[in-house]
Amino acid sequence: MTEASRLSVGDAAPDFALHDDTDNEVSLSALLKEGEKVIVYFYPAAMTPGCTKQACDFTDSLDALQAAGYTVVGVSKDKPAKLAKFRERDGLTITLLSDPELAAHKAYGAYGEKKLYGKVVEGVIRSTFVVGADGKVEVAQYNVKATGHVAKLRRDLGLATA
User: Fold this and answer.
1) Where is the Thioredoxin domain (predicted)?
2) Of the listed 18, 32, 46, 51, which one is catalytic?
3) Has residue 78 been placed in a domain?
4) Residue 20, Cβ neighbours under 10 Å: how many?
5) Which residue segment(s) compose the domain that 140 sits in?
6) How many helices (DSSP H) and strands (DSSP E) are in the chain?
7) Residue 134 domain-assigned (yes or no)
8) pLDDT greater than 70 at residue 29
9) Is residue 12 part of a domain?
10) How many domains does the chain fold into?
């Protein structure tokens, strides 16, 4: 197991082209062409308690984030069909992307060694990035907590919490 190479503020954000829960391809470069800043967050698995809480928090904050010029995409290794069930079950309105080969996870340093219940394991590192319209990383946060993370991110971005 190796330490994933992590991104820092100012780094060029790696582009990706992944399928969403309706099997449409979504790329970072296309989102940036729309002039939006993009919040890309990586989570371990759809429909688990922590990941559900985080996805619901992003969905609840989506209007405020969009009003401030942010698009939100959540990335997991789940297949599009499971993401569709996740969206339906929890009424999610954020874009959910499938990265079963973990290419985007690894490019962002969101897959690698982590501690789980005191043991070192290899897996998805819950991480959040804010990519500016120029394609540069403005925020890079690793090992974030599922609960309370969106409120903290909004504070970090200077956006009032609802």
Assistant:
1) 7-162
2) 51
3) yes
4) 18
5) 17-156
6) 5, 9
7) yes
8) yes
9) no
10) 1
